[in-house]
Input
Amino acid sequence: MDQRFSYLESLACPKCSSLHDPRRVNTVCECGSPLLAMYDLDAAASRVRKDSVEGRQRSVWRYHELLPVYDSSNIVSLGEGFTPLIQASRLGAEVGVNGLFIKDEGVLPTGTFKARGAAVGVSKAKELNISKIAMPTNGNAGAAWAAYCSKAGIDAHIVMPKDAPKVTMSECAALGAKLYLVDGLIGDAAKVVGRSSQSHGFFDASTFREPYRVEGKKTMGLEIFEQLLWQSPDVVLYPTGGGVGLIGIYKAYQELLQLDWVSSKPPRLVAVQSEGCSPVVKAWEKRLKECEPWPNPSTVAFGINVAKPLADFLILDAVYKTDGCAVSVSDQEILDAQRQAGRLEGVFMCPEGAAVIAAAKKLRESNWIETGDRVVALNTGAGIKYPETCPPQPTLISPDDTI
Output
């Protein structure tokens, strides 16, 4: 009986359709496009049942047949996955959406959803005998990859903008990575990594230059569908920088559909960006297939401060094919939503996660989202990692005072 741990079959180029061997080290296709993992879903459908998955460990690895690691001994885990899907009734009432849910990724190792991509990406790197990686990051991905590389015994070299959150710099240092700060943006950090990988033999683990991070992020979608009893929500709002998670959620739906585990139509996917950096929104408004670089990007939501995503065409394709949209919100709307979510739901959202709450409010006001829609908002990290975005406003009292 065919009982494979993984049904990974190949890496496919979504632009030129060429196939690549996943048992070898790969980055991007020769044509420059990111590569996507493809699985033998016909074989998996006859051997893997959703009810058997439901009884497994509550981690990303409960879906191991749809993940790219062939041998379970190569799994590098810190307990990631199966984050809560919280029904946000009080917040939903203020926003005007009765069926609002928060998928809270802030409870993951290193405090963000980046742990998913790192767990799968580092596990596959271990399986491929990669000994040292380099990657550009706005902060949280670097911290996550530093943690998992440390667990795996892989040397991590992390390059981030000098204005990245200080907490993530400290994480990288504490977790044993070699940290470099560049006077510029994440695109400048990526150029440093590209040159260094060629000259020093690092594996370039940049977003979508490494093919397996998206597979880890895909598990957000798998979990959402399972937590909603294998039904699609009406809308999923995702804070979009590199867009790995949005692409992953769409990929999860497509794979579950082929497995015949879901029968409803896909959720409408919403790419949420800041007004200070919204290349995907601009491209969507013009019905373009790719983004134009955003000049002088700047936002309090540093994780989505990406001037031009490498996989922009895949982000836009997912939005178009699900009848979704792209929307931008101001930094002030983000900060207001962050406090609102904390006050009403007890969730200290990161600014990127707060952006999707602000977007939900805006889309409800325009009637793009209806009151009765079931809406999932991705909180991609813990707000405590961004203390400067929500400074305390205490009242000073003396020991003899009452409150």
Summary: The CA atoms of residues 61 and 67 lie 8 Å apart. Residues 244-259 form the longest helix (16 residues). The two ends are 69 Å apart (CA to CA). The chain has a mean pLDDT of 96.
